[in-house]
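It is worth pausing here to work through a concrete case rather than discussing structure prediction in the abstract. The textbook approach is simple: state the sequence, then state the predicted structure, then interpret. We follow exactly that order.
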Amino acid sequence: MTDEVFEREAYADDRAFYLQRTFRALLDAMARPGEVAEIGDRAQGDARDAEASGLTPSALMLADVLLDAATSAAVAGPDGEGAALVLARRTHVAPAPAAEAAVAFVPASVRGEAAAAFVSELSAGTLADPHLGATCIVAADTVIGVDRDGLRTGALSGISEVGAWRLSGPGIRGTVDVELDRVDVMGARAARGDEFPLGIDLVFVDGAGHVLCLPRTTRAERIETACDRREGAAWDM
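Step two, the predicted structure:
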């Protein structure tokens, strides 16, 4: 009997590191609401998937770590069904209506009433199974929060209205102020009126790969004035 030594496969190693880095950054952002994590903007796989699905490469990176054959997904917008089929081919996820999807996506092109109506349909889970509440990935142009040192960081871009919110709750020491251009989605979240343990988790991601999370446990109060950007970095993309 002889020992057989198999060579490591470079692609498999690279794929594992890619998924681990992205998932770790997402977990960090979810554990620290208002803190901006960076995942980058270079999704592996077919480069045509971004255009075909209407999602940014950064959003596709999150799809890669959240979707598989055991879960379900929906995509907002008139091309949502086609986009969900692209995700199914890419990740083997099962396409589903918004009200039944475990993971939902709001592309940057879907805004206003269309985005709000989609978010309002998402499942909040049940008292018996609150974990069935949906996770919603929202493409944004402006994502500004804080880094690990509490300094302002993120990206300011686009022409859409930018709103400011003061966050509080588990994972936040006191309060933290964030800025997002997805006023439509934040308004829909507030209008849902979910009470813990029910609710949805929001994950905002911009084209540069900045990620900011609002778990269902996070309270968000709209504030009138923009956050102070003198500390840290905020820049146009």
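Step three, interpretation. The first strand starts at residue 37 and ends at 38. The radius of gyration is 18 Å.
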